[in-house]
Amino acid sequence: MVFLTKIFLTSKEIRLPRKYLRSKFIDTVRLHVKGGTGGTGLPKYGGRGGQGGCVYCVGKENANLRNIMTKHRAKSIVAGHGEDSRKTKIVGTPGADLKLEVPLGITIYREDGQVLGSIDKEDETVIVARGGPGGTPENSFLGHFGQAHHIRLDLKLIADIGLVGFPNAGKSSLLKSISRAKPRIANYPFTTIKPNKGIIQFQDLRTISIADLPGLIEGAHNNIGLGHKFLKHVERTKLLLFIADINGFQLSPKYPMRSCLETVLLLNKELELYDPELLQKPAILAVNKLDTEGAEEKFKEIKKAFSNVNQIVGSVAEDVRPETPIEFEDIVGISALTGEGVEGLKHLLRKRLDNFADENNPEIQDPAVVTRRHKAMMTERGPKIT
Predict the structure, then answer these.
(1) CATH numbers and ranges of domains, the chain
(2) Which residue of 106, 141, 208, 316 shows the fewest CB atoms closer than 10 Å?
């Protein structure tokens, strides 16, 4: 019986849907924080109770919201209580402060929407719950409770969508054709040295922000080239849009010529080596330059290869092989130069972002849907009588 049960569980694990095999990217966490209670004073000797400890958020480069949610979401985060005054120790010891390590780029909100602070630098701190004062003659020697409330940690996003690709893949050209941005464009690799941000606006007034990030090169995870500056920006987007040249890419004679397939896998590997959590973001692959000769056949081969991504990973050279290959939500062909496929890509990006919002916060709704529901409600109520 035990053997049969084991076989059953194994087969179930193999057939698990992808959404259970790969956890979702997290960009917001809600926590309950509580400052420590102040210690009681000692009226007979004029003793003072210790101050309650405070809860701080501290910026750390290697912190992430997933670990915070796993460790703290189910329970209150409470600082140490102040020590009571006593005959042998007239002044009580203050309670221990509790420091919660959070990733850089966090904005901290109180439950009523008030911003408590932002953290953008290493070791920068924000007090999120103050400890209660200890007992003194001014408060009848009674220690007070510390602040207690819910807070929300929101990862500040540079844009909804981040364009990821090697230099000269056509990211800036796509951004120009898909939005109102005016990035610098040329036929040499490093035309983008800082993020360009564009806005896609739809007819129903829905807007989506998209960032053209500086092009990656091999070794970016080791801070080669723009390295970590690029990858930090990738952390601050909801969805990744990979851009690859259908004809492949070669940075310089020092580097080997990479095919389109190898380019995508190498981008995958660079993100993985920097921070494996980046691979949990939803991702779309746009294969650019379909206007070039022979591009249609090459695109069909690429789609076929990625239909069984684990098999193709095993067949490529080790220096471009990621341990965890990205399974793209969609693979589309475009030409940023002629505009082919660009309109369809715009609507696909909107659809995927809406899906992301529904999965992470069901209360977030498309403004167009809210407007339609509001009009329907007003129709049912009839005209306002004054």
Answers:
(1) 25-155 (2.70.210.12), 159-362 (3.40.50.300)
(2) 316
pTM for this model (two decimals): 0.60
Alpha-carbon 74 to chain mean position? 21
Other C-beta atoms within 10 Å of 144: how many? Answer: 18
Strand, helix or coil for residue 239: strand
Q: How many Å apart are CA 234 and CA 93, to the nearest integer? A: 45
Q: Residue 367: CB partners within 8 Å, gap ≥ 6?
A: 204, 205, 206
Question: Bigger pLDDT: 358 or 129?
Answer: 129
- Give the whole-angstrom CA distance, residue 97 versus residue 138: 24
pLDDT tens, residue by residue, 235-293 = 778 899 999 999 988 766 777 788 888 888 888 887 888 777 888 889 999 999 999 99
Run of H or E residues at 378: helix 367-381
pLDDT in tens, 187-241: 433 333 455 678 888 888 888 888 876 655 444 334 443 334 556 667 778 899 9
- Tokens read off for 298: 């090459």
Distance set, CA 225 to CA 171, 212, 214, 228, 251 (Å): 18, 16, 10, 9, 12
